[in-house]
Amino acid sequence: MKTTLLNQRKERDELMSRPYLSRHTKYNINELLDSRIIKLITGPRRAGKSTEALLILKNRKFAYLNFDDADLLKKWDEALVMRMLDEVYPCYEFLLLDEVQNLDKWDLWVGKLYRRGKNLIITGSNANMLSSEMATVLTGRYIQIEMLPFGLHEVFEWNHLNINNIKEEEKTNTSAVCDDYLRNGGYPETMASRYITRSYLSTLFDSMILKDIVKRHNVRNITDLNNLAMYMLSNFCNPLSANELAIELGISSTSTAKKFMDYLHEPYLFYYLSRYNNKLKLMKKAPQKVYVVDNGFVAAKAFSLSDNLGRLLENQVFIELLRRGYDTGKTMFYYRSRNNKEVDFVLRNGIHVESLIQVCYDLSSPKTEKREVNALIEGAEELNCRNLLIVTNSDERMIMNNGYTIKVLPVVKF
Predict the structure, then answer these.
(1) What is the model's pLDDT at position 30?
(2) Where does the pLDDT of residue 284 fall: very low under 50, low under 70, confident under 90, or very high at 90 and above?
(3) Does 65 score more than 90 pLDDT?
(4) Of 27, 123, 157, 391, which is least packed with CB atoms within 10 Å of its CB?
(5) Which of 145, 142, 125, 122 lies closest to 24 in space, CA to CA?
(6) Which strand (E) or helix (H) includes residue 313?
(7) What is the pLDDT of residues 150-163, one digit of tens each?
(8) Are 8 and 89 in contact (CB under 8 A)?
(9) In this structure, what are the phi and psi dihedrals at residue 79, rounded to the nearest 5 degrees?
(10) Listing from the earlier edge strand, what are the strands of the sheet with 142-146?
(11) Nearest Cα to 92, choosing from 123, 117, 112, 126?
């Protein structure tokens, strides 16, 4: 066990020696570290959770356990591990548990560590950590920091550009960066080597399904699970229901399709957006729109005969809204009017609708503008909202229509 921990320490030190871009977070890191509350960093695999945890702790004395290490899991002995940690990391002040969901009954062990006064930083690639496991054992004792792949503002920083101050001579480069991000996404390890993006993300996609779903849930019908994942990836931004998916893909039952959909959300691979309705029963019956955590997965895996730039932009806006703290089913929805016109995003604050957002890659066609504006105004009238926005690729202006003012913004300013 000591050899395993010493090897992990070498890996930790090697990782910390590399240059990294510090991620954006709404929290004061020093205040978080001074608190005994558990710091839970969640998000998909390879999105930068471990790196951010290491950056947070860089100048602190901390011990490190990586539960993506099969050797550690195979030899696991709680009492022995704790003794060896004291030997390998004498007088450590913080304990970093990386991908801890891989450890059987990890939540009970973490609860014990918390009661013993350990200052814990935990990373995990499973949304179920919050919904059932972490929430049950450690209610009120943790704070979640969600880490997604790079947002556009972070991609700008990576390219040494200021998203809030784009100079005239930088506009061509800026446009290229935006287009590249739209198509290839923001996974950190692909930023410096864009030529590997598709092969890297294809392998990562398959790994997430096998490691985080098949192995964790002992899924036997891997073919149906893979077919469902590929179908949703090829139909991202479209409304889908478990019943429709079961019929279309020949899955044995609607409940199995629903179960597989839930599994595919757990590793933060897919998200589902509910249709807004004041009646909860009707909201639950309506199809949900499907989004993927990073646009790069679409280019890497989805079967498509066109670029789907409009849907890629919509997916990008959805993930950005997640970064800003909007929550599917609670504060973010889509909407269909009485005349079946769709509004891409309804943002709610408490019981009030605070904003309606349409996403349209190219608004230059009068026919397209009329369609998007009419849907937005119809939604505004029915939901009593006047804060209206259309996000585009490059268009910026104001549209006055039927007593409403609609702001049109390019995604780089959104």
Answers:
(1) 84
(2) confident
(3) yes
(4) 27
(5) 145
(6) helix 309-323
(7) 999 999 999 999 88
(8) no
(9) -65, -40
(10) 62-66, 94-98, 120-124, 38-42, 142-146
(11) 117
